Amino acid sequence: xxTKQLAIQSFERGQSILERLNKLLIHLKLTQKGIxxxxxxxxIQLAKSTVKAFLSKLSTLVSTNEQDASALTGVDGxxxxxxxxxxxxxxxxxxxxxxxxxxxxxxxxxxxxAPTGDDMAKLIESLTEFRSLxxxxxxxxxxxxxxxx
Length: 149
Description:
The protein is mainly alpha-helical. The chain has helices spanning about 5-30, 40-65, 75-90, 100, 105-115, 115-145.
């Protein structure tokens, strides 16, 4: 598949995930502050399930890649690049310090089900750092699509 087409698909997928991730982060931050969130419960549930599914797949691919770098056959180049960025982020403790990158991502996935107290803060930190990683990845898609300005 053509590089531009992969960049378009990656950009669209990333924007969708980013939109739902932002919606979820807003909900979690409001909940943490004891403020009633006005977003429909269905929207929050969709955001939560989308983020959870995406992180789960990404985590699985990162683990697979760590065991065998050639195991990502069949994964498109842009998604493979995100897998590599996630794996690199796990090794960059100066920038990525959250539970998502320092511990088992499955712990963060479990926190998504019923975050409370300290878990809520860890979850928000993890998702915020993940958003940063995703935004970095999307900026390379944007450069591929429209070039350097």
